[in-house]
Please model this.
Amino acid sequence: MKKIAYVAVTCVLLSACGQARQPMAPAPEPVTRQAPAPSHPAHAHAEWKGKWVGVEGMFLIITPTSPGNYDLEMKSDLDTHVRVKGVDSGSVIAFQRNGQRFTLRPSNGSQTGLKWLDGEKNCLMVQKGEGYCR
Model:
């Protein structure tokens, strides 16, 4: 009887040695969570970025800088070419030029009062007679 038990144990051990090892399952990928999008964009008027063209060589170039701030390069008439800082202020960009406060706001060509821009749809306006379109 001892002999049968010895043979049985030996068979079990030998059969276990002959089994192929199963590869281990790969470790699960670490879960990475994206930061939630900010509830307010860094620049309320980021879509205004770039060059806008007025009449008679007038232009406006808007460059977003730090959140809520812009560099504005303007040739607002034949003699004035300035660079000023602008800031988000609700639906407009506020800035100071020559000691006066102005705002840059959406408009169309006819609202600018410039007949050469009449019919334009995508414009920005500072005041009557000063507008820029794309």
